[in-house]
Each structure stands twice: as structure tokens, then as C-alpha cells.
Amino acid sequence: MAKILALKAREILDSRGLPTLEVELQLTDGACGRASVPSGKSTGSKEAVEWRDGDKTRFRGRGVLGAVQHVQGTIARAVQGCDFDSQEAFDRYLTNLDGTMDKHRLGANAILGCSMAFARAAAVSKKCSLVQSIASIYETEKLVFPVPMMNVINGGKHADSGVSTQEFMLIPHGADTISDAIRMGAETYQALRLLLESKGFRVAIGDEGGFAPQLKTTEGALELLVAAIEQAGYIPGAQISLGLDFAANDFYQDGHYLFEGHTWTSDEMTAYCLQLAQQFPIVSIEDGLSEYDWQGWETHTKALNENGIQCVGDDIFVTHANIFQRGIDQGIANAILIKLNQVGTVTETLETMRLARAHQYKTVVSHRSGETDDAFIADFALATAAGQMKAGAPARGERVAKYNQLLRLQETFPDAPLAAGVYQKASKKQ
Ligand code: PGA
Ligand code: ZN
What we know:
This protein is of the alpha/beta class.
């Protein structure tokens, strides 16, 4: 492996107009990699900590010039001239250099930017694609395209639509190919727009490109989605199903769920999830409970399991292998959301995914609400055969960057199938 020649970083804007970090890494053999780092708004408490300057005269304190300095100073000085024979060796070196549990010293954004840029440069150096490079690290048996989970109605912290549920996702699992799945989702998104207009709703959008109509209830949004699927010419449940992310952390207070005017216990929140899944073609529920309610999650998981619904842990696991292991031991969730920036390196992300693979948990590779045009997660989801990828609406540049990259990859890997069987158990119920 070639040596590290140079590291460069810069402060750029994310999709919300907030600053984020971009990193370029150059090897002595001429190979280069560039990557930018996403950022979340509805975060888990145990996520790796991104560096923010706190200087109120710039970007209301959210600047990342300190992270730029860390990459070009501390990290560059330490790694320049070194050769790392693997992604793991590079990532471990960075995490040791930082030396903190949550990466706050150098910043998880500084570390992840370097880690992703290294992954890209290493692939160029090995003269293979990023997909092949990551697939060989992860020892992926067979490349599989992820079923896209497209967030088309935004609520919670991501929009002022008035609904407590954060994400309403279209899941076009009835498609034969990734391009068909993306087309089905995009057509339904357009049908939803027409439907909203015809009903007099505004078609303003939220952080992830989904619509943010003024609705009073989650049921109201789900009814609109079922109608939009039908109007687009598809069969709800058989061809396109629905997924929800409650992001329940955001409405959990003093042991209760303050949801759309209700004050519910954990069991009542779970009962509500089941009731919704009976009324609507829902195959996946993410963060139906809060990360502070582990006991509730045990019952919640059992209930969703019995009904064939995918139960996804996001804020509760924050892509950390040790927290996830505890969840596996306690029978919590049957799927895990995978966000590189929750843990802060490519290597640690793969470690968590290995655990999921070993314990038959499903995986969903995910974007953040604050995104850039970097489509790393599309390559990553294919390379790891993750099965599912959520990247927001099939609209807005930073969201379609990921879906469009999957379309390109379909040309490169025409034999890789779409992971349509992911919801087999769930969709049989319909
Ligand atoms: P975030 O939300 O990117 O704003 O944290 C995404 C999610 O909860 O899945
Ligand atoms: Zn989530």
C-alpha cells in the first residue's frame, strides 16, 4: 500500500445550509479520495461527537474550522509518510490518536471524513471500485442492491407538518430491479404531490425532501400514502409497502410518550404501532420507543416480531457494536440502522454490521437529515449487501445523489439482484 502524501480539509455547506466537513486524502502513488460528512438533527445521546467551533460569530457556533485544523494539523502530521496496509489499521490509528471514547477531541466529523476519504483512495490505489474494495474487506458473499426506503412525508423534528412521526417511507419491495424500485418510489412521490395539491394541502417540503403538509395525525398521512400508491398504479402491500420512523426519543418525557395529543405508556405506544400495522401496509417500524426505554423495547420487539414487522433500532444502538451487542443479548429489535457518522469510522461501522450478520439482524444503511452530494452510502449499502438503504425522498440533489449512484452501479454490477425478499414475512400478511 502506498504512503499517505497529503490531507486537506475544508468547511462546506450541507443540505440545510449548515457547515460540514469535506476531506481529501492523497497517496504517494497518485491515488486520491474525497469525502464529505453528513450530520443529524434527531440524534441518539450516545452518538460519536462531531466537532463544532462554538464561535457564535460564525454560523451561530456551528462552524467546523476546528475540525479542518485537526485534519490538516494533528492528523496530517501523524499520518503523513506512513503506510497503512488496511482500512482497519488507518481507522484504529485515528481513533487512538483521538484517544476519547466518543471522538470529541479531534471530532467524529474530522475522523470520519478521513476514514471515508481513505476508503476511496485505497480503492483507487488497488485499482478497483469502492464497492469491490469494501466488499472484500467485509467478505461479502454476494452483492445485493438495497431496497430503497424513501421518506416522502416529513414530520417530527424534520418539518413543521404537525405530525409527531418523523418519517413516512415508501418501500417498493415488489420491484425486480433497483431501477424499477427507484422509479416506483419516484412515481408515487409525484402522485402524492398531485394528491396533496388536489386536497388543498401545501406541497412545501421538510429536511429530507419529503412533503410537509399540515396534518393532524399519523393516520391521516398514512391514508394519503396508500391513496398515492394506488394512484401511481401500484398495489399497496404487494408492490409498495410503508415504513415509519417514529424517532420516539423526541416525544419521550418523564417515562411517557407525548404523541399527537396523547400521553402514552410504553405498552400503549407499542399497541398503537400494532394497530397502525393492522390498518395500513406497514412492514417496518424504526425507533417506536425511546433509547431510554430498554425494558419497553423488549416487549415492543416481541410484539412486532409476532406480527412479522421489521423492528429497527436507530437511536438506541447508534451503530455502536458494544451497545448493539447488549441489545442482541436482551432480544431488542430485529434490525439495525447503520449510520457511519454515529460511530465515526468505516471500520467500526463494518464491525457493527458483522454483528448484525452473525445474529440475523436486518440492516438499513442510512443518510442523515443534513446531507451533501456525497453518495458513499450507496456504494457502501451495495458492497455490504445491507439489504436496505434509506436516503430520504426521491427528490432534492443531496437525496437523489444516493439513488442515482445506485442506478450507475446497476450498470457496473448487472448481476447483483435487488434484496426484495427482505420483507417476505411481513408482506405475506397483506
Ligand atoms: P437525523 O434523523 O439524521 O436528523 O438524526 C434521521 C433518523 O432519525 O433516522
Ligand atoms: Zn431514525
